[in-house]
Design a protein that fits this description.
The chain is an alpha/beta fold. The protein has helices at residues 51-69, 96-104, 108-125, 141-155, 227-239, 256-268, 306-311, 316-324, 336-358, 370-376, 382-393, 398-410, 416-430, 453-468, 472-484; strands at 16-19, 24-27, 35-40, 73-80, 86-88, 92-95, 133-136, 156-159, 162-165, 200-205, 223-225, 243-249, 280-286, 289-291, 294-295, 332-333, 487-489, 497-499. Helix 8 (316-324) packs across helix 9, helix 11 (382-393) runs antiparallel to helix 12 (398-410) and helix 12 (398-410) runs antiparallel to helix 13. The chain is globular and about 85 Å long. It starts with 15 loop residues before the first strand and ends in a 5-residue tail after the last strand.
């Protein structure tokens, strides 16, 4: 679709978003008319992203697509953390990048480059729109030092290990997490001399006699910036302050984002005049993806990546659909069964769309704007458009929007071009590639497959001949042999076969 619907045309379904600051859903209006500025906490590129990490980017992509649907221009920044993030998200332990480099005996720069490209490949495979700009932490170290210098006298103190932020110097510290709670910080490694358990590092000095691969000179000695400092500096540099929306996983709500807010308050000097200033108007967080053993974590080892799903024969868009099937603020259980159900749902959607496309040769539905669509839709389709708009405008309620897509495919006695226009518009917001992905592309061959596609086709031809001759015993024998080799035979399927999911 080439166009977007104006806010006025959608006044009947005003965009409302949940704000973690107030724990309430509020009507959204950007600071600048018709322009939303969004900062999304990006990956620390010391390892592959696990699928729980990637849920955050499906969420923020849905947010961005919804803002576009509502007629807004969007500037979105995603950062790449290649320095400063410690092995505990609670501001403790070694630098994740330094630890990964030591473990692999590789340059930290090579580690960062490899996992950055892997992450961007995941983003592309999930049909997540690339941000307006990627910001890389190491490109902003001089600005981080300047930022720290500005707040140091009034809000920081120096210890042998680095420069620390005194969390008692800003009002309402920890409000984003639900209030100040020192017990919540008990998991942070104690540092001799810290004034408060919740104080955090702005700058970490390199230990005496130790040279890190990434370190810089600063007024507090050679070292590296703290993780929390990076996002305050990069968001301000690229989006200004205040900006509209800051996103991240729910785990960021407890420590990382409250620390960002404290820095933002200190930097702007508005701790007394504007105690509610946080740097962003909205703070939005997606909930966890959980497996049956609990929250996914790289520290547990054996975590599931998007690459491993593909190796198991799963198309990445099936995982996107799985994410959209739950509201972003709800926990989402991951299992082979749930993923298989999402893949089946995606197949049915594509079968329906392919059937419509086969009847609509030569129709360029992608070029129809939403303005045109709203004015020219068949009366049977208008309610679906209105309901879909209301669903995604209600804090990105994708579980309510998806059935409307299925209804649009199934509705009878409607011109096929109008149905395709509506489906294309819906898919602008959902990002499922329904107009260009094919069912054949969903046949992803597992990495450990014991049979080639050519062998499968040959066996299915043999089975088709057996069934034509009513030799059902041979037909069943061929089917059972294929099942034993990991192939699920689906009688009546136009594509004739699919690989069985083989997730561990």
């Amino acid at each position: 679709m080439a166009g977007a619907m104006s806010q006025d045309q959608h006044s009947d379904a005003r965009l409302r978003l949940f704000n973690s600051l107030t724990r309430s859903i509020e009507p959204f209006a950007p600071i600048e008319p018709n322009h939303a500025r969004v900062y999304s906490c990006g990956p620390t590129v010391y390892n592959y992203a696990h699928i729980g990490n990637l849920r955050a980017y499906v969420f923020v992509d849905t947010l961005r697509r919804t803002l576009l649907w509502k007629g807004l221009d969007v500037t979105q920044i995603i950062n790449i953390t290649d320095v400063g993030h410690l092995t505990s998200d609670a501001d403790a332990g070694d630098d994740k990048m330094e630890a990964a480099a030591r473990a692999s005996a590789k340059s930290i720069w090579d580690i960062a480059a490899h996992y950055t490209e892997a992450f961007k490949a995941n983003i592309a495979d999930l049909n997540i729109m690339a941000p307006s700009e990627w910001t890389v932490a190491t490109d902003y170290v001089p600005q981080m030092i300047e930022f720290a210098q500005k707040i140091a006298d009034a809000h920081c103190y120096e210890l042998d290990s680095g420069l620390y932020f005194d969390s008692s110097t800003v009002p309402n510290y920890g409000a984003l997490a639900g209030g100040r709670d020192d017990a919540a910080h008990a998991r942070i490694d104690p540092v001799a001399g810290k004034r408060n358990p919740s104080d955090f590092a702005i700058w970490r000095k390199s230990p005496p006699g130790e040279q890190r691969q990434m370190e810089w000179d600063s007024p507090w000695g050679k070292g590296a910036p703290g993780w929390h400092l990076e996002c305050s500096v990069m968001s301000q540099a690229r989006l200004g302050q205040p900006f509209d929306i800051h996103t991240g996983g729910i785990d960021h709500r407890e420590i990382h984002h409250p620390n960002e807010i404290a820095q933002n308050q200190a930097y702007c000097g508005c701790t007394d005049a504007q105690p509610d200033f946080t740097g962003a108007r909205w703070w939005m967080h997606n909930n966890f993806l959980v497996d049956r053993q609990g929250k996914m974590s790289k520290s547990k080892g054996g975590f599931t990546t998007l690459f491993s799903l593909v190796d198991a024969g799963v198309h990445p868009i099936a995982y996107r659909l799985l994410c959209l099937g739950a509201h972003y603020r709800s926990e989402l259980e991951f299992s082979a069964d749930n993923l298989a159900a999402a893949l089946t749902r995606l197949k049915r959607l594509l079968m329906g769309v392919e059937g419509l496309k086969a009847r609509a040769e030569g129709i360029t539905w992608q070029s129809v704007t939403l303005d045109y669509l709203r004015a020219n839709l068949h009366p049977k389709l208008v309610p679906l458009l209105e309901q879909f708009d209301a669903a995604i405008a209600d804090d990105l309620m994708t579980p309510r929007a998806l059935p409307l897509l299925e209804e649009a495919i199934a509705v009878k006695k409607v011109p096929v071009d109008e149905k395709l226009c509506l489906i294309a518009a819906f898919d602008q917001a959902l990002g499922l590639r329904l107009l260009d992905l094919t069912r054949a592309e969903l046949r992803v061959q597992p990495k450990d497959a014991q049979i080639t596609p050519e062998e499968i086709e040959a066996e299915l031809e043999r089975r088709t001949a057996a069934r034509a001759e009513k030799d059902f015993a041979l037909s069943d024998e061929i089917r059972d042999a294929l099942i034993a080799r990991g192939v699920e035979v689906m009688d009546g399927d136009p594509l004739r076969w699919d690989w069985r999911l083989t997730l561990a």
